[in-house]
Design goal:
two-stranded antiparallel ribbon, 5 helices, five-stranded antiparallel sheet, alpha+beta
Length: 180
């Protein structure tokens, strides 16, 4: 991470950064834990044109956060600096989960899934990894999942010759037969 970016982030946080640690686990972006004397933050940064990807991630995190059902990091900034895109948010410390933690997570996920709307999808497209993902509204969850999630991945696999044209057509035929 450059000194210029450190200064930029320090100005956003209005706190001096005392430590920066690499966080492992992702394979698209670089990730860091940023410590100040008062707080910890999480930073994702990428040198490619990933601002839209980060913006839709921030949007999705805020949608989940606004349900008040499950602990979700607060997004602090999403922008570009020195030819890089970044997403800065609250750091949530990981820990070894207990059986009570698993139970609470299950209850929180159930509560999250009780937050409903009139259709399936969003008013904004997003990404699955670095691949664009459509979220066009649909009245049926099954059709949304097949049309917006499965078909694009199957089409990509067919284009990359990871799935044969015959396998793709078999899926299309069987799905149309089962369509509600």
């Amino acid at each position: 991470m450059t000194k210029g970016l450190q200064t930029h982030l320090s100005n956003i946080l209005n706190e001096a950064i005392v430590k920066i640690s690499v966080v492992h686990g992702g394979d698209i972006s670089k990730a860091y834990k940023i410590d100040t004397s008062n707080n910890c933050y999480f930073l994702k940064i990428n040198n490619f044109d990933t601002l839209e990807m980060f913006q839709t991630e921030a949007y999705g995190l805020e949608l989940i956060r606004n349900t008040n059902t499950i602990k979700t990091p607060k997004v602090l900034a999403c922008n570009t600096f020195e030819n890089s895109s970044y997403l800065l948010m609250e750091f949530i410390e990981s820990k070894s989960p207990s059986s009570l933690d698993f139970k609470n997570l299950g209850l929180q996920l159930a509560k999250l899934h009780q937050c409903t709307s009139s259709g399936f999808g969003l008013n904004k497209n997003n990404f699955i990894g670095s691949l664009p993902q459509s979220n066009m509204q649909n009245s049926s969850w099954t059709n949304f999942y097949v049309i917006q999630r499965l078909l694009p991945q199957l089409q990509l696999a067919t284009r990359k010759q990871l799935l044969s044209e015959k396998e793709y057509k078999t899926f299309i035929t069987s799905w149309r037969f089962m369509e509600w």
